[in-house]
Design a protein that fits this description.
The chain crosses the membrane at residues 38-63, 84-102, 108-127, 139-160, 180-201, 222-243. Its main location: membrane. The chain is mainly alpha-helical and 245 residues long. Helix content is 76%, strand content 0%. It contains twelve helices and no strands. Helix 3 runs antiparallel to helix 10 and helix 4 packs antiparallel against helix 12.
Length: 245
């Protein structure tokens, strides 16, 4: 469960939310993520039903080949592969940018190389080694998000060093929306990217001992936990940081 939750929380929340806030404003940020979350709720429920009724050992593109058309499944499989081939260097670059916030003396290419080598070494240990690393890294991400939510609530209600009550003042000035409908529309891209990974629960059916029992429960829990993490975190970010910063 922790691997599914942690695997779905990443660059979209930790890095992409800043640019989305600047282009859309706090209201657009929460609104767009809520809309995308509602859409993915329906997708995840449909995927869970398919995974329970027809558990497979491969990816979910098999469902498209079986129930729609083999060409559709072929295209979906390659699109999904290209998605993760692009995400890997993106995540490495984002990690390098985060580290460069504290130290700019080392070129970002060095950090990217270190991360890529680490990923290569982890994959050399097979599924067991990758699963163990993913488990602990996911726990760290979940704890980090929970810690931020607690800290954000404390800061919003005046528990910071200055004891200043923040509340929703940034929703009034500079305002809830940064660029009207254009700003709202632009945040959809970040929201869609941030929720990528929720489909991983469909792949867990092949590894579950009793998919009829575990997959529906896992799908509901993972989706709602991720949604709460995103919506609450982004609402707090909108309260603490003005989009004009």
């Amino acid at each position: 469960m922790n691997k599914l939750i942690g695997g779905s929380i990443g660059t979209g929340l930790f890095v992409g939310s800043g640019g989305a806030l600047a282009s859309g404003g706090p209201a657009a940020l929460v609104l767009d993520f809520a809309i995308i979350g509602f859409m993915l709720f329906n997708v995840c429920m449909a995927l869970a039903e398919l995974a329970v009724a027809f558990p497979i050992s491969g990816s979910f593109y098999v469902y498209s080949s079986r129930f729609l058309d083999p060409a559709w499944g072929f295209a979906m499989g390659w699109n999904y592969a290209f998605n993760w081939l692009i995400v890997m260097p993106l995540e490495s670059t984002a990690a390098g940018l985060v580290i460069r916030y504290w130290t700019g003396s080392v070129n970002i290419a060095v950090w990217i190389t270190i991360f890529l080598i680490a990923i290569l070494i982890i994959n050399l240990f097979g599924v067991r080694g990758y699963g163990e690393v993913e488990f602990y890294v996911s726990i760290i991400k979940v704890i980090a998000v929970l810690g931020f939510i607690i800290l954000g609530i404390v800061l919003v209600f005046g528990g910071g060093p200055n004891h200043e009550y923040v509340g929703g003042k940034y929703w009034h000035n500079p305002g809830p929306f940064a660029d009207g409908f254009k700003g709202v529309y632009s945040v959809f891209v970040t929201a869609g990217f941030a929720f990528s990974g929720t489909e991983l629960v469909g792949l867990a059916a092949a590894e579950a001992a009793n998919p009829r029992k575990t997959i529906p429960r896992a799908t509901k829990q993972v989706f709602w936990r991720i949604t709460i993490f995103y919506i609450v975190s982004l609402a707090l970010i909108g309260c603490l940081v003005p989009y004009t910063l």
